[in-house]
Amino acid sequence: MPSKKITELLGSQADSLLNHQCKTVDKSSDVISSLVSNFAILLIITFAIFILNIGLSFWLGSLLGETWYGFFAVGGFYAVLAIVLIIFKKKWLKGPLNDVIVKKMLN
């Protein structure tokens, strides 16, 4: 009957462990479902911005005289934006994303 003694000794700890496991699964599923739903929205927004950028490139190209000028202008804008984001990524991206994930896990 050692298993009964072990169950009696670990009874409250086993319940506590099960409770922690349930909380962990609940928080993990909440964070993952939030990430997946936000990713789906981000994907749709990305496609919309992609199509709008093509239109903007053609429009700027017609204003500047050559179609490829418009594509270079839009590409240059995104190159500058990428450089700014690389410089400030810790302050603007990493910190706020960490905060959101921690709040989601602890809430």
Explain this structure to me?
The chain is an all-alpha fold and about 110 residues long. The protein has one domain (about 1-105). About 95% of the residues lie in helices and about 0% in strands. It contains three helices and no strands. The protein has helices spanning about 1-65, 65-85, 90-105. The longest helix has about 60 residues, at about 1-65. The model has no long low-confidence stretch (mean pLDDT about 85).
What's the layout of helices and strands?
Blueprint: H1 2-64, H2 67-87, H3 89-106
Helix pairs in contact: 1-2, 1-3, 2-3
Major sheet: none
Order of helices and strands: HHH
Strand content: under 5%
Mean pLDDT: 86
| N-end to C-end Cα span | 42 Å
The geometry reads as: elongated
- Give Rg in angstroms: 26 Å
Which stretches are poorly predicted, pLDDT < 50 over at least 5 residues?
none
Q: Quick one: how many beta strands?
A: 0
Which class do the helix and strand fractions yield?
mainly alpha
In short:
With 107 residues, the chain is mostly helical.
Question: How would you describe this structure in keywords?
Answer:
107 residues, mainly alpha, elongated
